[in-house]
Amino acid sequence: MPSEPDKNLALDLVRVTEAAAISAARHQGRGDKTAVDQAAVDAMRTILSTVDLDGIVVIGEGEKDEAPMLFNGERVGNGHPPEVDVAVDPVDGTRLTARGMPGALAVIAVAERGSMYAPGSLVYMDKVAVGEAAAGMIDIEAPVAHNLLQVAKSENKSVSDVTAIILDRPRNEDYIRQVREAGARIALIGDGDISGAIATSKEDSGVDILFGIGGSPEAVTAACAIAALGGEIQCKLWPRDDSEREYAAREGLDLNQVLATRDLVNSDNTFFAATGVTSGQLLDGVDFGGTVVRTHSLIMRSKTRTVRFIDAIHHIDRLQDMATFDY
Q: What b-and-e string marks burial along 6-23, b requiring 16 or more CB atoms within 10 Å of the CB?
C-alpha cells in the first residue's frame, strides 16, 4: 500500500491513551460510569486530532451501552497519511473505574485502511484466546476440556495448573461449569476482556486461556495486540435475539464462521496502545501525586513484534495549560 505506515505509530498513540486514562481516573470510585467514559472520550478525541494519521473509526465505543462515543465512521487524526482503520475503547472497564475496582484500561489500536473486521450492530462474540505457546492448537468449536488440555500440553503442565479467565456473566455460566468439571482453575473478571485476552500472552499474568462471550469491538481491538504477541484469538458472532439474527442475514454476516486473528485484523502492521486506569493484572493504574501524575502503558507493533512498557511522569499543571479538556 502506498500509505502503509512506516513508523511505529504506537509511540504517538500512547499519548492518546495516557490522556484518556488520566481523565477517566479522576472519576475513579465515584459511581458514575458515564462521567468516566465522557472524560476519556473527550481526552482521546482531542489528542488524536494531533496525531499524524488519516483514520476512520471502524470499532467505535458506546454502541453497546449507549455511552459517550467515538462513533463508527468518525474521522480522526490530523488528516495526514497514513490512511488507517482505528479501534478505540476509551475505557475498557467503565464500571470497574466507577466502582474503584481493578483492571480498567484506556485502549486504541490502528491498522492499514480496510483491514479491520466490522461486526456492525452485532456487539457480542463467543471467544477463546491463548498465548504464543498454544497458538495453532485451539479450536473454538471443540469442547472446553480439549482446549484446556491443549494449553496444558503447550506449557508442559497439568490441566489442574491451567488458569482460564472468564467474564463473570450469566451467559458464560456454561463455560464456568465446563472449566471446573475439567479440573482447571478460573479467574473471574467483572469487565475488561481486552485485558483478559492480552493477559494470556503475558508470561507473568497467571492466565493461560480466555473463554466466553464478550464484546465484538473488544475482540477486534484485542486481535491487534495478539497479532504482535504471537498468540491466537478465535471468535464467532453471538446474536442475542432473532432481530440480531435477521440483521446478520441482511448484512451477509455468517454466524457460523470461525473468525481467527487474521480475520479480525488482516494486517501485518498493527499498532496497539493501552494505559492502565485502575491497577490490574496487565498494567498499573494512574497514580495521582499532586501536580505530578504517573501512568503505566503498554505499546506494541506487530510488524516488528516490539513490545514496550512505559512508565511516564506527567506534570499536569503544564499539560493543562495546553489542553482544551480537563486532565
A: eebbbebbbbbbbbbbbb
